Amino acid sequence: MPSPATRDLPLALPLALLLTSVLTALLTPALALIDDFPVVTTDQGSSILGRKLTSAGLRSGSLPRDYAAFFGVPYAKVPVGNRRFKPPVPEPLPSVVDAKMPTPGCLQLSRRPLEITGSEDCLTLQIFTPNVI
């Protein structure tokens, strides 16, 4: 007579395969997303996390191309208080800069009457490159 462990073996194998398939299906998209967020390390040691995008290929005969985009990389302190209307004051980058999403532009009048859009925290760079080293 087979032991309880060997008697359950035919049931355990399909369950193990099912579990492996489910985990693979769940983890594969997450692992693929890692490639969509390029990271650049500056000479000062900061890591800038960007985003991989694809061009629309709007020019006649051109094909869509992948490129890296880094949004809102700060290059100076926010010009508020006694720094307003003065030259920019450099500010060291934090150890990690999340530059995956577009940031607001500088303060400006909106197309709607009496509406102002933007932010005073606008001394940032928007960087686009076809190559990330």
TrEMBL record:
Keyword Signal: yes
Coiled-coil region list: none
Pfam family, one: COesterase
Keywords attached to this entry: Glycoprotein, Signal
Record's signal peptide: 1-32
Ion transport keyword on record: no
Gene3D superfamilies cross-referenced by the UniProt entry: alpha/beta hydrolase (3.40.50.1820)
Domain Carboxylesterase type B stretches: 38-131
Stored PANTHER family: CARBOXYLESTERASE
Protein name: Esterase SG1-like
Organism: Frankliniella occidentalis
